[in-house]
């Protein structure tokens, strides 16, 4: 019962942080603060850059790989990875999918777009193809364990370095093809 209450609360938070009414075909490139500008831990940004978790290890939380088998972020160690928490019902999430696809195609960083959809996870691969992200690997966290663990609204994107330590997180949608995003991603080394 407690987990159901937590899920309901998270859905309410996610709905508040996610603009389901968004009809734009692309996400505006939100200007990022300068890379040396740290976010104050006590004043976490609702949208934009958050460095308050820098250096924290990636969680061992399991989610499903494209084969339906459990995997964790440890599977990505050895190369920087940009983890994007998204859902099919989240307008800003869907708007940034093509920019994540383009970033993944460039190969400068691994992209792990992890759906937080709790119902009908089987629809995620077709949804990615239909919304401009055909080559993104369809990872699914149908228990929303990552977003619950990170207390994250959708979309939330987190950059981990090759050792699996958090560099920064971005709250809200973004254009992952922009120069500001490229500069931020370069911080993973």
Strand content: 15-25%
The assigned CATH architecture is 3-Layer(aba) Sandwich
Q: What best-fitting shape do the alpha-carbon axes yield?
A: globular
- Number of discrete domains: 1
Structural class: alpha/beta
SSE order: HEEEEHEHEHEEH
- What is the average of the pLDDT values? 84
Order the strands across the largest sheet as they lie in space. 1-8-7-4-5-6
List keywords for this structure.
alpha/beta, Glutaredoxin, six-stranded mixed β-sheet, globular
Task: Summarize it.
The protein is 28% helix and 17% strand.
Q: Could you walk me through the main structural features you see in this protein, from its secondary elements to its overall organization?
A:
The chain has 5 helices and 8 strands. It has about 190 residues and is α/β, with parallel strands linked by helices. It has a single domain, classed as Glutaredoxin (3-Layer(aba) Sandwich), CATH 3.40.30.10. The strands form 2 sheets. A 6-stranded mixed β-sheet has the order 1-8-7-4-5-6, covered by helices on one side. The longest helix is centred in the N-terminal third of the chain and has 16 residues, at about 1-15.
Outline the secondary-structure elements.
Elements (H helix, E strand, L loop, with lengths): L1 H16 L30 E3 L12 E2 L5 E2 L9 E6 L4 H16 L3 E6 L8 H7 L8 E2 L4 H6 L5 E5 L5 E6 L7 H7 L4
Parallel strand pairs: 4-5, 5-6
Antiparallel strand pairs: 1-8, 2-3, 4-7, 7-8
